[in-house]
Write a structure and sequence with these properties.
The complex is a heterodimer of chains A (about 350) and B (about 350).
Chain A: H1 2-16, H2 20-72, E1 82-83, E2 88-89, H3 92-123, H4 126-138, H5 144-171, H6 186-210, H7 214-222, H8 227-238, H9 240-256, H10 259-264, H11 282-289, H12 296-328
Chain B: H1 2-16, E1 23-29, H2 34-47, E2 51-56, H3 60-69, E3 74-77, H4 83-88, E4 94-107, E5 117-118, H5 120-127, H6 137-142, E6 154-158, H7 163-175, H8 177-182, E7 195-197, H9 199-209, E8 213-218, H10 219-224, E9 231-233, E10 239-240, H11 244-258, E11 280-287, E12 290-291, H12 294-308, H13 328-336, E13 339-340, E14 343-344
Parallel strand pairs in B: 1-2, 1-3, 5-9, 6-7, 6-8, 12-13
Antiparallel strand pairs in B: 3-11, 4-8, 4-11, 9-10, 13-14
Classes of the chains: A mainly alpha (about 350), B alpha/beta (about 350).
């Protein structure tokens, strides 16, 4: 005991006997080292927080979906009965509906958004560029429930009177336009999604095209290309990785969009390839049915739908990454940012 | 120095403690009765400032879940808990009806000014997808003098689980054996045909925007939004226009099937009263049979008893039907059976 007391007592004395100047320099060095270490740890923590969150979401989805996974097995993915009374659940209609509506949205939105981006960067008079770009980007700020309302009261009547009749007259023989058009349908859902993702694709595409060096255009024009040929042969290929990235960003939005879609798609658990038929998406089903999912199996089945949506989104993004890497071999711009 | 600071602190703490203990009661559940529950809680709090009530309308399913998990003091639901759900919380639940509502059939027939009449079998067959045209012979025969168009019938139902769907499918299960066997009843079912609308507003906007559409919404919603609805034939063979009185008549008609010892988990659809509107339904509060906190339990039971008495007067102006007066003694008996710490919460004299 006494030894210990003596020891602690003697230690500060030894410290004070050190030259004052040296001690302060040492301390400041020590301090810098420590704050560096803390700084590094905090940043590491931040960096790990998101992957950790990703894993936790996956874990919660998986654990909550476990009863449904056990009960239905992989057949959950390809059966199409959704019967809460009989407790039979299959997600095929929602998976197909999610993919079809997003695909339709991309089909409509990509030409439109690329057209806007090309026009704004290559052809528009300078005074028009900023206002139009601003207005297009403003579309992204509209809440999706407003899109839904607009869809119910404007888009669907417009589709019913002005779009579907001529479309049926020309392409009515294809399997995509069979059946009666009630309004709420895959077509309405796909079109509203397209309108919602245009601003994202257009804004990113515009940035990508703006970043294409002027020398690319000049070189093409010097070879005798018209402006359109210059865009097609020099500008677009140069920015293709970035453009694909822009499209994938839009696709990601389309896959997860809920409110506007559920208001327009008809919310029907049915598989069909006709655009005129009502359909369902995974996000819409979860949003609609979760609050009143009274039984445990129902609850669990909805979690499994969430898990499937999660996996589908990850797979789509992974495919997109691979696509971008492939295309970006060489030094296309925008690839590094994505 | 130190002691004066301590004294000041003690005085401060003393001031923060209220004279009468505040009781905070939390509830969650059905969206349908939300308007009247919020109104009741606000009104009750004015005369009982020591009782703070909070109700979150998160849906019946969520209400049952939170009530069963014990995260709220009371739940609320439009569809009674099933036997297995009650067994899961060892039977520690009472269903107390508070007000009633009705489900009305809305439709969109341009050019038809008369009110369309529907019989139970035709209604069921429309929602089964067996009657598909408005000028179907069966529809025409029950609507003499009405020129029904040769349009497709487009069925619109609720996309999300809801008490409205429960009442409606419960009714269809009673009047149509085929519906009972193929579809059944529940807050959400596997609809044979039709489009799903999200919420009452989703159903009504889809119906109003789609020529030839037919759907179902709550009576209060249809009247406040001035949507035309159909007249139904009830089990006594009378044509009934949905009104709040016809809903109360449905509960009165169903009382003789319930008996005074009922747990109130009864459906009053297709009720036998002569003036009863057939698609009527209770909405319930979920209370525990025994609570651990006496102060909370007392405040809660007193509030519910107030809602069942004075509170009822507010119902019609907010679009809900009052409970029949004869039901009150049965509800009182149920409330008196609630215990806290093994003793009844309400004293015999209260």
């Amino acid at each position: 005991m006494t030894d210990f007391g003596e020891g602690t007592g003697s230690f500060p004395r030894a410290m004070t006997s050190l030259p004052i100047e040296g001690s302060s320099r040492r301390q400041s060095l020590l301090g810098a080292d420590r704050s560096d270490r803390i700084y590094r740890r905090i940043l590491t923590g931040f960096a790990l927080a998101l992957p950790l969150l990703f894993l936790m979401i996956l874990a919660v989805l998986f654990v909550s979906a476990l009863p449904a996974l056990r009960r239905f097995g992989p057949s959950f993915l390809w059966t199409s009965t959704w019967d809460p009374v009989a407790e039979l659940y299959g997600a095929a209609p929602m998976i197909v509906g999610t993919l079809l509506s997003s695909f339709l949205a991309i089909l409509i939105a990509v030409p439109l958004a690329l057209g806007v981006a090309i026009f704004l960067t290559e052809f528009a008079p300078r005074w028009l560029r900023q206002p139009v770009a601003f207005l297009v980007e403003l579309l992204a700020a509209i809440p999706s429930v407003v899109y839904g309302l607009w869809g119910v009261f404007v888009l669907i009547p417009f589709l019913r009177t002005a779009v579907v009749p001529p479309l049926k007259a020309v392409l009515g023989w294809t399997p995509f336009l069979q059946g009666v058009f009630y309004g709420n349908s895959l077509l309405a859902g796909g079109v509203i999604l397209a309108i919602m993702i245009v601003p994202y694709i257009a804004a990113v595409s515009r940035e990508v095209l703006l970043a294409v060096p002027g020398s690319q255009r000049e070189a093409a024009l010097a070879m005798g290309a018209t402006r359109w040929e210059a865009v097609r042969s020099a500008v677009l290929p140069y920015g293709r990785a970035g453009l694909i990235g822009a499209i994938i960003l839009g696709l990601g939005r389309a896959l997860g969009e809920t409110m506007a879609v559920t208001m327009l798609i008809g919310n029907r658990h049915d598989i069909g390839i006709s655009l005129l038929q009502p359909a369902y998406t995974m996000a819409a089903a979860i949003a609609n049915e979760f609050s009143e999912a009274t039984t445990n199996m129902y609850h669990s089945a909805l979690f499994e739908v969430g898990l499937v949506l999660f996996v589908v989104t990850v797979v789509v993004n992974a495919i997109a990454r691979i696509l971008i890497w492939r295309v970006a071999r060489g030094a296309a711009i925008g690839s590094r940012a994505l | 120095m130190k002691s004066t600071r301590f004294l000041a602190l003690a005085a401060l703490l003393g001031a923060a403690v209220p004279v009468a203990a505040q009781v905070q009661l939390n509830g969650a559940g059905a969206t349908f009765p939300n308007i009247i529950y919020q109104d009741w809680m606000l009104t009750y709090n004015q005369t009982h400032p020591d009782v703070k009530l909070n109700y979150q309308s998160i849906g019946s399913g969520g209400g049952i879940r939170q009530f069963s998990d014990g995260t709220v003091d009371f739940g609320a639901t439009d569809a009674p808990m099933g036997d297995s759900a009650i067994a899961a919380i060892s039977g520690n639940v009472l269903h107390i009806p508070t007000v009633m509502g009705a489900v009305v059939i809305v439709y969109n027939l341009q050019g038809v000014t008369q009110v369309v009449k529907l019989t139970p079998d035709v209604l069921a067959d429309i929602f089964l997808g067996k009657v598909t045209k408005w000028n179907d012979a069966r529809l025409a025969s029950i609507n003499p003098g009405v020129t029904l168009p040769a349009a497709d019938i487009i069925v619109v139902h609720r996309a999300e689980g809801s008490g409205t769907s429960f009442a409606f499918t419960d009714y269809l299960s009673k009047v149509s054996p085929e519906w009972q066997q193929k579809v059944g009843k529940g807050p959400s079912v596997n609809w044979p045909v039709g489009l799903g609308g999200r919420g009452s507003e989703g159903v009504s906007s889809t119906v109003s925007q789609t020529p030839g559409a037919i759907g179902y919404v709550e009576l209060a919603y249809a009247t406040s939004n001035k949507i035309q609805f159909a007249t139904l034939r009830n089990s006594s063979g009378n044509w009934i226009t949905p009104t709040l009185d016809a809903v109360t008549a449905a509960a009165a008609g169903a009382m003789k099937d319930m008996g005074p010892n009922t747990d109130f988990r009864v459906s009053i659809t297709n009720s036998s009263g002569a003036q009863a509107y057939p698609i009527s339904t209770f909405t319930w509060l979920l209370l525990h049979k025994s609570y651990s906190d006496t102060a909370k339990a007392r405040a809660l039971v007193q509030f519910v008893w107030w809602a069942e008495g004075e509170g009822q007067a507010k119902a019609p102006q907010l679009g809900y039907a009052q409970l029949p007066k004869d039901l009150h003694p049965w509800i009182e008996a149920r409330l008196r059976s609630i215990t806290a710490g093994g003793r009844p919460v309400l004293k015999a004299a209260e």
